[in-house]
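User: My advisor asked me to double-check a structure prediction for Lipoprotein before group meeting. I don't want to rely on an old file, so could you generate it fresh from this sequence?
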Amino acid sequence: MLFKKFAVAAAIATTLAFVGCSKKEEAPATDATAAASEAVEAATEATEAASEATDAAADATVAADAAASEATEAAASDVAATEAAPVEASAAQ
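Assistant: Sure, here is a fresh prediction for Lipoprotein from the sequence you gave:
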């Protein structure tokens, strides 16, 4: 009995699906072509934006490397000055 109810419900759903599909109108080919052109244009713009972001990231990496190098040099000169201070104090006595 339950199986018959499911079979009837499936048959009704299938019938409605076929009726619904047959009533749909096909979109004109020009609309599809225009949509495809817009999609290609949007993809091109996204690619260009990604390229610009990659270039900006590369520039930021170069700047960060330069800053790290300068920080290392500054730390090295601080260490050298700290090590030289006791020697100068000993020489002054």
